[in-house]
Amino acid sequence: MPTSRTDPLTREVVELIGSVVARYHEEYEEAAAAHALTGAQARVLGLLALEPTPMRKIAEQLKCEPSNVTGIIDRLETRGLVERRPDPADRRVKVAAPTDEGRETARRLRDSLHFAREPLGELTEVERTLLRDLLKRMLGVPAEPTGA
Q: Where in this chain does the record put each HTH marR-type domain (predicted)?
């Protein structure tokens, strides 16, 4: 079981992480609204822009019920941003995939998010790499092999 860290530095770091997350979500919701999307619709569209994905996997990534994802996909499909296709690996499974308009909307959404990108741009590559590696470590993601 993890130990409870209540020293002032740990509390300050936790507060700062919370502030970053809150600001990111606020900007994300504003960017989504500018494209007449909810935050959840924008997140799903962003995931699908990376690769067509089965709806069950989307639900796992968003940590929500598959029925919620079905409703989100229905609304995105009605707007012409997403389509359902048979999974090439298993035709019994449906994947959601962005349309050309959906990919373009996802790109515009991503490009409009400045909160994290601009301050990160002020960090050196070494600092960004260190931050990435520390965040991955906090999340339990294995470290990437270094090119020795």
A: 10-140
Q: How is residue 30 written in tokens?
A: 């504003």
Number of domains the chain contains: 1
Flag whether the pTM goes above 0.85.
Answer: no
pLDDT at 148: 46
Residue 83 structure tokens: 């389509």
Strand, helix or coil at 26? Answer: helix
Tell me the pLDDT band of 119, cut-offs 50, 70 and 90.
confident
Give domain status of residue 148, yes or no.
no
DSSP string, 27-92: HHHHHHHHTT--HHHHHHHHHHHHS-EEHHHHHHHHTS-HHHHHHHHHHHHHTTSEEEEEETTEEE
